[in-house]
Structures are given as structure tokens and as C-alpha cells.
Amino acid sequence: MEKKDLLNTASQLKQPSQKAVDEYSRKADAMAGTLNERLSSRKDITQLIGEGNLDMMYENHRNHLRFMISLFKDYNPLVLTETVLWVFRAYRSHGFNLTYWPAQLDNWVQILKDELSKDCFDEVYPFYHWMIVNNPAFAILSDETLPEDFQPKHGTQE
Fold first, then answer.
1. Where are the domains of the chain?
2. Cys-Cys with 116: which of 49, 67, 121, 150 at CB 3.0–4.6 Å?
3. Is 60 exposed, middle or buried (0-12, 13-18, 19+ CB in 10 A)?
4. Is the pLDDT reported for residue 122 higher than 50?
5. CA distances from residue 3 to 72, 100, 140 in whole angstroms, order as listed
């Protein structure tokens, strides 16, 4: 998959309503706290995020919510695609493993289901679904632009 394919599928996402954005925004801090608790209590957290990166993970979760709120208010497929690719490159260069994103996104979806109204969830979930199904493409495309020191070794799980 190429970046143009990601942009094409991202272009099919529908901007959430203001009502959904407001609800998501109101519940953002609590949802970040729940995600931080869930992930930091995992026995494999160091394998997911690298040694000493808990604060960076917490900041990523807060930034994720701020970004999504901004995106939901003024949806732009290019901004979504480029930002997700940047996040993959940036955090992987700090030791985050590719397995972090499926773990994070699966937990986000469960938290969104638990905390948001059905209407709000139905409007924001397609964005999370898009990130989940395109996770392999983000990994491949971000590999192409990672510094050589951070390239995954052939035959190993990154």
C-alpha cells in the first residue's frame, strides 16, 4: 500500500458532528487516564514502549486526544495520514515497538465503547478502525523514512 492509497481511504471518512466532538472532548481526560492505567499495568509494557518511556507514552495519549479533537473539528485526510506516519516514525525512533499501536488502539476502542454514547461512538469509531486496519501500511511506510539506526532487523519482530 502506498501513501496515496491511505489518503484515498482516509478521504472516505466522515467528519463527526459537533455534538460528537463535544462529547469526545468532555470525556477526553478521563479516557486518557483509563488508557494510561490499562497500558502501564501490562506485564509487557517495556516490550511495547521501550525502557523508561512511560511518561512519553502518557504524553502520546494526551496528544492523541488533542489531535483527534482538532481533526474531528476540521477533518483533513492528508493531515490524518501524515500525522499518523509522523507518530510512527517519531515514537519508534524512541524505542516504541510496532506492537504498541495495536495494543493502544484496541484499548482506545474499548474505552470509547465504554465511555461514549452510542451515537458518538458510531461517529468517531471509523477513524480508529481506519488506523487499526492500516497499521501494517503505517509500519511499512514509516520504515522507509526511519533513520538506518532504527530500521527493524530482518527476521525480527519490531
1. 3-148
2. 121
3. buried
4. yes
5. 21, 21, 10
